[in-house]
Amino acid sequence: MAASTPSPRDTGFPAEGRCSYYVEKKKRFCRMVVAAGKRFCGEHAGAAEEENTRKRILCPLDPKHTVYEDQLAKHLKKCNSREKPKPDFFIQDINAGLKDETEIPEQLVPISSLSEEQLENLIKKLRKASEGLNSTLKDDIRSHPALLDALNDPRNGDSAIKHLKQQASILGNIEKLKLLGPRRCFVEFGAGKGKLSHWVDIALKDAEKVHFILVEKVTTRFKVDGKHRKENSVFERLQIDIQHLCLSKIPVLREGKLPVVGIGKHLCGVATDLALRCLIETYAASYEERNEEPLAKRIKNDKTETKVNTLAKEGNERNVPEKWSPVAGIVIALCCHHRCDWRHYVGKEYFRALGLGAVEFHYFQRMSSWATCGMRKTLLEAADITTERQDRQNDSSEEHDDGGCRVADDGADGLPGHTFQHPQWRLKTDSYC
Predict the structure, then answer these.
(1) What digits encode the pLDDT tens for the residues 45-66?
(2) Please, what sign has the CA dihedral across residues 170, 172, 178, 181?
(3) Of 140, 203, 125, the residue nearest 171 (C-alpha)
């Protein structure tokens, strides 16, 4: 009988200065560095013969790591997962919107569980609400010379080129709106690595007094905002949820009175609503509540006419808006627009004016995905099905069973747009949110 093949644990040895603990799942020894005179790293110290008396337990703040049980109290004071002190610009739910418990039912059944009559009523409400709306959006795809070299770099793959084109188009639209200039603060919501602010900074070249605030609620690797060393540009990263961000409490905005330009790439529906509330409801409204005259206007009121003309001329040369506003503009490219929440939604008044509420909003969210789901049919196929159905209706001598599949015509009762397949209906609709 042949001898069994020895396992790596039997024949292998840990590297010098590395942990001697064998990780069964990875079929290798742990590669952590050990302290002088020790065989095991801190994570696997419980396996050491000389430390068998000490027990390691999961950290209650983060079960991804362990700690000695007798040192738990000390560890909790310095654990990276501990709750940290809140900064001044953190105000709980300041941008969340009012929460009306009476509007939102405790449990809403999935749209697939609705009866045919209930779904028909929802579709009728959607048709009525969308009457007269121009649902056709005009594409405005632009570019910017700041990204020309990167777009033509052969080392960039398809994914990188895709993002560069998107960033170039956003940058081109920012320039079109005359928001690309000196003496302002760009707030990037959902910043991630900070690539959009990076390209805005490059496009601004040597513009003076430009501040960037990058808002991201999670820790991000490979950030690019920390690599900038321009004297006229300052980058500041805030790890905070947009829901709790109060811009008027940030020192550079409170003291410098810089007009804010809100930017973002790939913000979902909820984040977009929160960003709009953050900029308009809390930040811009704070100036109105204080009735505080902006710095630029105070300068004009205090100076003589000659100095005013000089300042205006200088402002025109530097592309500074004549009329100062706390929020100069907002340029956001959305993604996942259906991922929104009734509490945070900024269009509640419009919904209520149409006789709609939280329940309809909940189901319209899900119905909006029908326009882009993978089961949608081509217009030609839909036309063939419609013709076939009309032929069946014209044949009054026979009764036909359509198998529960109903098709909406392109007449007054139909919804213009793409076709989609539902388990019980095949309809036409646009993407509504």
Answers:
(1) 766 554 456 788 899 998 888 8
(2) positive
(3) 203
